[in-house]
Write a structure and sequence with these properties.
Keywords: Amino-acid transport, ATP-binding, Cell membrane, Membrane, Nucleotide-binding, Translocase, Transport. This protein has about 230 residues and is of the alpha/beta class. The protein has 8 helices and 10 strands. The protein binds adenosine-5'-diphosphate (ADP) (2 copies). One adenosine-5'-diphosphate binds next to strand 2 and helix 1. The site of one adenosine-5'-diphosphate (ADP) has 2 residues, from loops.
Length: about 230
Amino acid sequence: ETIIQVKDVGKTFIGKDNRVEALKGINLEIHKGEIYGIIGMSGAGKSTLVRCLNFLEKPTTGTVMIEGKDLAVLPERELRQTRTQIAMIFQHFNLLMQRTVLDNVCFPLEITGQKKKEARGRAKELLEIVGLSEKAKAYPAQLSGGQKQRVAIARALANNPKILLCDEATSALDPTTTKSILALLKDINKKYGITIVIITHEMAVVQEICTHVAIIDGGTLAETGTVEEVFTRP
Ligand code: ADP
Ligand code: ADP
């Protein structure tokens, strides 16, 4: 069952005296429950593509469909609802530094209108899932990189997303911490059936966790397939 469909997506940035074709005719189909890797070098178009998936960026051409719905023509209210089903984590975690770990995880729950007490209860559950219950009262600055990413994952899961987009989520972490974060993502995928899209420039990350992979180069997809297919093709 297809959850994300990218059809002929192009994105051109037009500057004062230049034009950058960041994406050219991208076609991609991601199925429910997959861990899908999008790998490419710096400047290949990975961030632009992932930003098109949650409509932080509007494609110049083509369509992005989430569960068969074209985000470009969804009414505002439905678009907002669909977007809460697409969560994201980042290379630099993007935590709120003035808030405790627990309050960081509560934040998206407050935004979607949950009562304070329920939000805190849910946030505590989420911290347990990511193995950080004992840090609930700490501030982000007191945490290691891996712990910060665990908080970000807990926050991302708060509103029960169907899709988790990971934009270079392990690029700031050492190899051991990277492994533990990838293990957590795998666990979440298995337990909750959340579709995970991993954007990375690191081959090892894709080989460790992904079921399917797309190689992006110069704004086009060079190859797509299962990890075995793509990495053993002659
Ligand atoms: P990656 O994430 O793979 O490093 P990006 O998607 O960030 O690649 O960038 C792809 C290309 O598009 C690069 O040449 C980049 O400079 C350009 N680009 C990205 N965002 C913008 C923007 N907002 N305005 C102009 N050019 C952009
Ligand atoms: P990354 O490649 O790590 O995603 P970048 O440094 O390429 O990060 O981009 C950071 C931000 O700057 C993004 O929002 C991107 O859209 C924007 N950006 C990237 N390249 C350009 C560019 N050439 N002109 C304007 N904005 C850009």
